[in-house]
Structures are given as C-alpha cells and as structure tokens.
Amino acid sequence: MFRRATALGALAIVTFAGEASAAPSARLVYVRDTGAEDCPDEPALRAAVAARLGYDPFFPHAAATLFAEVTREGGTYRARVKLVDEGSVVRGARDLEHKGPRCADLVDAMALTMSIAIDPRSLTSPPAPSVVEEPPRQDDPPPAEGPPAPPPAAVDAPPPRAAAPEIASRVGLFATLAASGWFGAAPAPATGLTAGVGLRRDWLAVLVEGRFDLPSSREVAAGTVETSLVAGSIAPCFVRGVVFGCAVATLGSLSARARGITFPSSDDALHFLLGGRAGVAIPLSGAVEIRAHGDLLYAATPQILRIDGRDVYTLPRLGAGISAGFGVHFF
Questions:
Q1: Where are the domains of the chain?
Q2: How far apart are CA 132 and CA 142, in angstroms?
Q3: Helices (H) and strands (E) in the chain — how many of each?
Q4: Which residue from 254, 258, 267 is spatially nearest to 182, judged by alpha carbons?
Q5: 201 forms bridges with which residues in the sheet?
Q6: What does the alpha-carbon distance between residue 49 and residue 55 come to, in Å, rounded to a whole number?
Q7: Residue 10 or 54, more confident
Q8: Using an 8 Å Cβ cutoff, are 110 and 97 in contact?
Q9: What's the fold here for domain 2-123?
Q10: Half-sphere exposure (CA, 13 Å, Cβ side) for 47?
Q11: Which of 70, 126, 214, 291 has the most other CB atoms within 10 Å of its CB?
C-alpha cells in the first residue's frame, strides 16, 4: 500500500508540473531538521535517485529546483518533497511519513518520488521489446539464396529500476532509567529509582519496570516507623508523538520497621497498586530520549503500621509520584 501511495504522490507532482516543467535535471536543496540527523546525507540521497534514473540529474544551474526536508517527531519521520520551476512557482508537493527507527526507509521512498518528478519517463517508459525470430513454417518456400542478412540492431534496454520500498511496521526494543519522588506511598515523602525495558510497535507499547523506594520514616507517639518498597510493574501504553499514557499495575514487598522502642522489630507485606500514568518522551539525538512522567496509584492492599499491637500509622490509599530520566531505543 505504501508503494502505491508513493507512486500516486509522485504522479501528482508530475501532473502539476506538466511536461514543460518536468526537466530531466534539477537543482537539489536537501535539509535534515533537528532530530533527523541519523537520516542519510545528501550524497546518499543523490545516489539513490541516480540509481533509479540511471544518471545523476542534479546540477547547480538547473532551471527547476527540488526541495526535500526531513523532520522527526517522536518515533515518526516525515518528509516533504516540493518541485519549483524557474519562475519560483510551486508545481507540486508530496508529504511522506514513516513510523519506525530507520530513516533510510523514508529516504528510499523520497528517492522514488523525486526520480519520477524529475523525469516522468522513468515511470511510464515501457520495457524494450524483445526480438524473437520465428522459425519458418513447413509450407513456406525456402528462402532465396543471397548474401546473409545483417544482424538485427542492438536495442538499448533502459537501466533497471529498484523496486519501491514497502515500509512495514516494526517492533522496537527500548530501555528506561529514572529517578522518582513519591507522596503518600510511605509515612513521609520518599525517593527511589525505576528501571524498565519495553517493546513498541507504532502507537502501542508495553513496559516492564522494576521499582525501588528508599527507606522513608516518620516519628509517631510510640517511636519511629520506617518503610521501603521493592516492586515490579507492568504498563501497557498508548503513544502519540512525544506524549504517552499508560495503565500501571504494581506488585511488590513493603518492608516496615519500628525504631526508638525497647524491642525494635520489622515486618514485610505484599503490596498491590493500580493506577495510571501520563508523560512525555523527547528525542535528544539518535536513539536517546529524555523521559518524564507522573503516576497516580491506588493501594488495593491497605497497610496499617503497628507497634506493640497498637495502630500508629495508616498508609494513604492514594499516592502520587513523579519521575524523570532517560530512554534508549535499540532498534
């Protein structure tokens, strides 16, 4: 489907330009915006177009100008190809898009569109006919004796054109590491770390995280209570550009300790949390991005801290956290 859409888009440029403007050469202006530095450079794009046409169509003093700009927004690469004639009139434009970690696939589609816009004959020229000599029929008279016929003239076949690229959805692997601050998850505000690994395809992602909350304590009438948390989370997410939203389920072990009393003790309990997450992932360069998000979690397992059999503190059922860190995409 993408190959057909690319060819139709190129035909739209040709239709706007007309035969008078679709010269076999053009001046190339190629721009890679911030975030798209990993896209192939101008020599690579020129080579891709030349491979399709069989010659290099780009000259600095050509009458027509072909503009190509590549940008990146999150995990999506976008390209705009625009043909301008010698009178500075736009004769056609085409927007291309590719969701995935490889910008080279988008540049292949750009090369196809640009080659057709520069030389429409590269799309419409039929292949050279093959010359096949029919054997004489049995009832035909034998050919008259005479000088041998000259060999047929060689027919120059057009240079082969590479097939148009088909951009398929790919599953990408990524990892995250972030520092976190939590409120309502412990007797006092707590800090911690989260690390995760996930898979993403188009606008869907699934992240598996490990969470470690550092000890947080609070003074109570009977002494001091302190808690820490070691847990794992799973978060299915919806991604749109640099913004994402997730459902979060967390299961772990909550450790509680009592200090400042005659007989200090500790205990562990299963802790289960459910909630949601909203955040952003802003690309830095290449496969690295800055990530920040906020969580709102409900404690499905109520936790009450006791000293000597007396209830001294009850953890809130609703807690919130903020996290900031980095993400790395591997493919």
A1: 2-123, 172-329
A2: 20
A3: 4, 14
A4: 254
A5: 204
A6: 8
A7: 54
A8: no
A9: Rossmann fold (3.40.50)
A10: 6
A11: 70
CB 180 within 8 A of CB 208: no
CATH architecture of 172-329: Beta Barrel (2.40)
Q: 80-133 pLDDT, tens per residue?
A: 888 888 888 887 888 888 887 778 777 788 888 888 887 777 666 544 343 334
Residue 118: name the closest of 42, 62, 47 by CA.
62
- Return contacts of 59-63, CB within 8 angstroms, 24+ apart: 59/25, 59/26, 59/27, 60/27, 61/27, 62/23, 62/25, 62/26, 62/27, 63/23, 63/26
pLDDT digits (tens, 9 = 90+) for 253-283: 999 998 877 778 889 999 999 999 999 999 9
Q: How far is CA 229 from CA 14, 179, 187, 254, 258, in A?
A: 63, 14, 12, 5, 15
Least confident span in 107-116, 118-127, 141-150, 188-197: 141-150
Angstrom distance (rounded) from CA 24 to CA 125: 14
Sign of the four-CA dihedral 200, 201, 202, 204: negative
pTM for this entry: 0.51
Contacts of 67 (CB under 8 A, 6+ apart): 29, 31, 80, 81, 82, 83, 84
Residue 80 backbone zone (phi > 0: left; psi -120 to 50: alpha; other: beta): beta
Record the tokens describing residue 134, joined without a space: 């029919």
Encoded tokens for 196: 């995760």
